[in-house]
Amino acid sequence: MNLKPFHKQVARSVLEYLFARQGEWTGLWDLYFAGKKDKVYDVAEAMPLHWSRRRRLALMRVIVRNGLSGGCDCGCRGDFEITDKGLIYINKPRTKEYTGY
User: Which pLDDT tens digit goes with each residue over 60-94?
Assistant: First the structure.
């Protein structure tokens, strides 16, 4: 990935977050559901809190474009899921089947 070291660190944090939630719905909701009764996993939890939605979405676009995560980076809910390439990047094994979204 062609990113600055800090952004690579954040990207790794996002991939670790997705790894921990394999098989779960993981979107980019910008913490909208934070503190709500129903837990919705949000990749924004793995990014700096002061980042804007636009910046968070830009990082997810880079991650998806590089094949490290599947999902939709248009600005909808996302449905992000770590790919085999992403697992190699963070040196982790697959624990749940990839849905191929």
Answer: 999 999 999 988 888 887 888 889 999 999 999 98
User: By the 8 A CB rule, do 26 and 41 touch?
Assistant: yes
Residue carrying structure tokens 């982790």: 92
Q: How crowded is residue 80: how many other Cβ atoms within 10 Å of its Cβ?
A: 29
Alpha-carbon distance of 14 to 20, in angstroms, equals 10
Residue 1's CB is within 10 A of a number of other CB atoms, namely 12
pLDDT tens across 51-60, in order? 988 999 999 9
CA dihedral 23, 29, 35, 36 (to 10 degrees): -80
Q: Which of 56, 77, 76, 67 is nearest to 7 (CA)?
A: 56
